[in-house]
Amino acid sequence: MVRLPGEGQTGYVAQVSRQRYERWALGQLGVCLLASLACGCARPGSTPAASDPPSVARAGATPSPTAAEPKAELKRPDLRSLTVLVSAKPPPALIAAYGELAHRTTRASEFFHAAADGGFGSGSLVAHGKQRFVVTNRHVVELATQVQVSFAAERPGPDLPVLYVDPDYDLAIVAAPESSSAAATGFVLDEQPASDQEPVIASGYPAIGDTPSYQVTRGYVSNERFTLLQGGLLQSYIQHTAPIDSGSSGGPLTSELGKLLGVNTLKARRRESVGLAIPASVVRSAIERAEEDLARTETRTPEIARVACETLLGALASGDEQLEHVERGLGGDFVAEAGFSGLIATHDDRASLLESFTADPTGALLTASAKRLIARALSAKGDPRTCAALPTQPAEANVAFTVRLSGHATTWVFGWEQARFKLLHDASIKPLTTLQVLEQLGAVQPPKRKWRPSLR
Fold first, then answer.
1. Phi, psi at residue 32, to the nearest 5°?
2. How confident is the model at residue 317 (pLDDT cuts 50, 70, 90)?
3. Rounded to an integer, what distance in angstroms lies between the CA atom of residue 233 and that of residue 302?
């Protein structure tokens, strides 16, 4: 900025006429032109003379050889290339059940086919050391053991394994694709916790109709330390005002520098601009536990299966307070086996049953299966709850135990899903036939829209 002669003196600038100032500025420009002819006065963008001190080099000028090298500016990551679309299908047993239901009915056929196709949510490609992972929400992958990940302007890649599901927070860790060019980079987890009024950016793939569409929004941290009681555990979240919509589950919440502050997971109902994200510190811990599991050589032993069996029994004894922990111990085969009968048993009227099922079919069956197990466990008060391994084990990597519930013994079979042992079969449960299911579900027209995982 050019400083006028006498600037700062009382009343002087106010008395300078426009014409006088123009004449003065032209005179200064003439002096500069003469000086440039005589001694090489630098123009904006040109190289300063060797005699000029580095401090007077103008913006855009090339520094002299003796000038100190400036620090490289941190390059912000491309949000669009690191925010991914995660597509998850139900487990094979449920896909088969949905397919049979679609074949048996005309009115709800499209809905059951859509349920078999699964749904989608968002995810974040995260760098951790030399490794890369896709981080999303547990409720996006639900019971899936394999998911597909799509980057911007790319088609879905091959199936990728779900490496880890967090036992407490709504987090899932998926293997990163190797073929994508975007896999060479990833979000860096912010070492500093979010602070009140800090600007944040949310990105993801919420739906327009039934089609996922990339979206990026801005907001602020409105509460850096929001806590919520979930499954008997007090959990910490980042509360923010960046708009998030259905389908944004698992998408990144980043700082203005592009570092990952958290993973979006919840949206408050009946409130404006209240989104919740799982903090980066929790995401880091989940990734580290996933790495530990990958490094273990012996994870599928009968002893680890017994621990999973006893953990599930302990959660059942706590009732609905541990509902989410019970859900995490159930595998896809068990939900296909017990889900429909559990759904009917846990709903007093058909309208509420249909409302629950059509909103989220796989999620409703999972919850109903868990509630049915809890009800059986609570009715068996006083009975010893132990897992005794059977002398003859089933084929493959499954492990069977004798368990006492509701006053009688039953056989539980555990198998390996989502990097842990889960209950796959209960010998005491008799699945409903397809016709029995349709008799309960066929009275109300399911919605025409395709179901998709959404923010809760």
1. -65, -40
2. confident
3. 29
User: So what's the architecture of 188-289 in CATH?
Assistant: Beta Barrel (2.40)
Q: In this structure, how many other beta carbons lie within 10 angstroms of the beta carbon of residue 408?
A: 9
Answering whether pTM is above 0.85, one says no
**Which pair of structure tokens corresponds to residue 203?**
């990105």
CATH of 79-187, one of 3.20.20.70, 2.60.120.10, 3.40.50.620, 2.40.10.10: 2.40.10.10
Closest CA to 309 of 219, 411, 395: 411
* pLDDT (mean) for 30-52: 36
Is residue 370 within 8 Å of 423, Cβ to Cβ?
no
Mean pLDDT of 394-400: 79
CA distance 265 to 270: 17
Question: Tokens for 273?
Answer: 């601009």
Q: What is the end-to-end Cα distance of the chain in Å, rounded?
A: 54
**For the chain, percent helix, then strand, then coil, each to nearest 5?**
35, 25, 40
